[in-house]
UniProtKB/TrEMBL annotation:
Protein name as annotated: UTP-monosaccharide-1-phosphate uridylyltransferase
Enzyme Commission designation: 2.7.7.64
Source species of the chain: Malus domestica (Apple)
Native organism taxonomy: Eukaryota, Viridiplantae, Streptophyta, Embryophyta, Tracheophyta
Keyword annotations: Nucleotidyltransferase, Transferase
Record has Lipid biosynthesis as a keyword: no
Gene Ontology molecular-function annotations: UDP-N-acetylglucosamine diphosphorylase activity; UTP-monosaccharide-1-phosphate uridylyltransferase activity
Signal peptide start and end residues: none
Length: 614
């Protein structure tokens, strides 16, 4: 032990630390062999400034050890360690300073993909094959982000998807996975009940609150052993173009850190060993999704069906995108040297790239009213075998980028520290040309209703573009459910136009159902019959699995919540005072935050409860 320490100390001596880090030299005897190795990495990568403020031995010694605990975490959580992080940072910062365009040499063009129309024969048949495949899938939710644009104090997955039932996003996701699990297991009769694995990527900002949400709600009905939380670590901040690590202004024995981005999910999955476990268990697909899309599972079965039918290694879900909408554009990039790939170009890069490559107007809508580049909604379906093969080569490292805000045109100093970032949708960037990379376009009303902007942010969205707010997120759930039931033959009244939290929205009847009632359009059609109507002011909540709606006329509120999934037939006329939507003031601090952010609450005046039908 002593000799290992001696040799580590010798190595440090050979770095001339007496000259470059005298304060470290004085404290060397406090450090373990491992800590001295880490110190060596820091000195070799030009980080001696980190020790400039170190006190004499005997002062702050615990803090010095804590400093190395942090360095050890930063080193082990990054593929290739800190030395690799700093090397990449120097390269990317030099490219950024030189104004190098990351798409240099590439020409963008509009790619072709699978385009689906809800409810038609091909949609139904993709849904059917998707449900079959679901028992061979694992789901991964990236939920490490704070949602700074939304400014919500809690974690985003705890926000209600809609307040009619108060179901939060995490509950909706879990119940949807469970519904798919049941439907898929039934199709594979004879085999034992499938348990679809569910991974949630958290961060220090979200981990404990996510765990608490799960535990205090009995995992929303999922077996706790099905759920695995993987926590991403933050990365070190950079102070200048030499990639000198930033000292935390609140504690001189800490390095400042910031989130690395959702791209971390790949290295975490790889290092967790889960991918191999899934592969050995016969799984074929990994589905990635984000924290607040209340329409996501309308699209999942059909999209998975597309992956299976087209044998895609990568399938990104997309929706028609309004020009300048804050979602990435799926683009074919062709290089002068012949390389070509279909990849997400992030929303802040698409317009400049188009302008630089022969589209003088940049990112604009065409005659369809949408940008020709489909919008990436960051729902990715990866084929597990090829995914493991690729990660075995890369270790899960994803191409990173850096986005420093320079003080002036000399680009020598930053307004504030920066860091490397990575995005999960950049995974295909390292794939060989033989990889089958495709995408599936769904109608936006069906598949995409994220909650990202607070009311002020939503007000700044260009007119006609989606608000991506809590208000629009909830209204789009009712709209989609109304349109789906219309397609299934129910006479759902037209919406009312309202301005809520400064946003012009359509208010449809508040229709919502548990995923176990129906997870595909075929399920819905099998549970609806006769001549039915639902008025605009109505609320319909379906909680049971075996609820059949037959010749129902609804003008008020109806909640169908059968005991033990008993079979219930709902028919006849229901009229009552109903549940009324009441606007609340966004700025009124006496109103709970969940309601203020969406700008309304629900006054439950009168409803008919299910047991009258049971
Ligand atoms: N997230 C993490 O888990 N860890 C992190 O470090 C950061 C985020 P945002 P943004 O919805 O359509 C993405 O902040 O900027 C999670 C795509 O890049 O909501 O809106 C976080 O919790 C863009 O191409 O992402 O952009 C959340 O679940 C477009 O597809 C998710 O990552 C856009 O989403 C996304 O984080 C979209």
């Amino acid at each position: 032990m002593a000799s290992a320490l001696d040799s580590a100390t010798e190595k440090l001596a050979s770095l001339d630390i007496g000259g470059s880090a005298p304060n470290l030299q004085k404290n060397l005897h406090l450090l373990s062999t491992e800590q001295i190795e880490l110190a060596k990495i820091l000195l070799e990568t030009g980080q001696s400034h980190l020790f400039e403020h170190w006190a004499e031995p005997g002062v702050d010694d615990e803090e010095k050890k804590a400093f190395f605990d942090q360095v050890s975490r930063l080193n082990s959580s990054y593929p290739g360690g800190l030395a690799s992080y700093i090397k990449t940072a120097r390269e990317l910062l030099a490219e950024s300073k030189a104004g190098k365009n990351p798409f240099d040499g590439f020409t963008p063009s509009v790619p072709t993909g699978e385009s689906l129309n809800f409810g038609d024969d091909s949609f139904i048949s993709f849904e059917e094959s998707g449900v079959k495949e679901a028992r061979k899938a694992a789901f991964v939710l990236v939920a490490g982000g704070l949602g700074e644009r939304l400014g919500y104090n809690g974690i985003k997955v705890a926000l209600p998807r809609e307040i009619t039932t108060g179901t939060c996003f995490l509950q909706y996701y879990i119940e949807s996975i469970l519904a798919l699990q049941d439907a898929s297991s039934k199709l594979a009769s004879g085999e034992r009940q499938t348990r679809i694995p569910f991974v949630i990527m958290t961060s220090d900002d979200t981990h404990s609150r996510t765990l608490e949400l799960l535990e205090s709600n009995s995992y929303f009905g999922m077996e706790p052993s099905q759920v695995k939380l993987l926590k991403q670590e933050k990365v070190a901040c950079l102070d200048d173009n030499d990639a000198r690590l930033a000292v935390d202004s609140r504690n001189k024995y800490r390095i400042q850190t910031k989130p690395h981005g959702h791209g971390d999910v790949h290295s975490l999955l790889y290092s967790s060993g889960l991918l191999q476990v899934w592969h050995d268990a016969g799984l074929r697909w990994v589905l990635f999704f984000q924290d607040t899309n209340g329409l996501l599972f309308n699209a999942i079965p059909a999209a998975l069906g597309v992956s299976a039918t087209r044998e895609y290694h990568v399938n990104s879900l997309a929706v028609p995108r309004k020009a300048k909408e804050a979602i990435g554009g799926i683009t074919r990039l062709t290089h002068a040297d012949g390389r070509s790939m279909v990849i997400n170009v992030e929303y802040n890069q698409l317009d400049p790239l188009l302008r630089a490559t022969g589209y003088p107007d940049g990112d604009v809508n065409n005659e369809t009213g949408y940008s020709p580049f489909p919008g990436n909604i960051n729902q990715l379906i990866l084929e597990l075998g090829s995914y493991i093969e690729e990660l075995t080569k890369t270790g899960g490292a994803i191409k990173e980028f850096v986005n420093p805000k320079y003080k002036d045109a000399s680009k020598t100093s930053f307004k504030s520290s920066t860091r490397l970032e990575c995005m999960m949708q950049d995974y295909p960037k390292t794939l060989p040309p033989s990889a089958r990379v495709g995408f599936t376009v769904m109608e936006p009303w069906l598949a995409y209703a994220p909650v990202k902007n607070n009311p002020e942010g939503a007000a700044k969205v260009p007119k006609g573009n989606p608000y991506h707010s809590a208000t629009s997120g909830e209204m789009l759930v009712y709209r989609a459910n109304s349109l789906i039931l219309r397609k299934a033959g129910i006479g759902v009244s037209d919406p009312e136009q309202q301005v809520i939290n400064g946003q012009e929205v359509e208010v449809w009847p508040r229709i919502t159902w548990k995923p176990k009632w129906a997870i595909t359009f075929t399920d819905i059609k099998s549970k609806v019959s006769g001549s039915c109507s639902i008025s605009q002011r109505s609320t319909l909540v379906i909680k049971g699995r075996n609820v059949f709606i037959n010749s129902l006329s609804l003008d008020g509120a109806l909640v169908i919540d059968p005991v033990d999934d008993a079979e219930v037939k709902v028919e006849g006329s229901v009229v009552n005072k109903g549940w009324v939507l009441e606007h609340v003031d966004y700025k009124d601090q006496s109103v709970p935050e969940e309601l203020r952010t969406r700008g309304f609450g629900i006054n439950k005046i009168e409803e008919l409860e299910k047991n009258l039908f049971a």
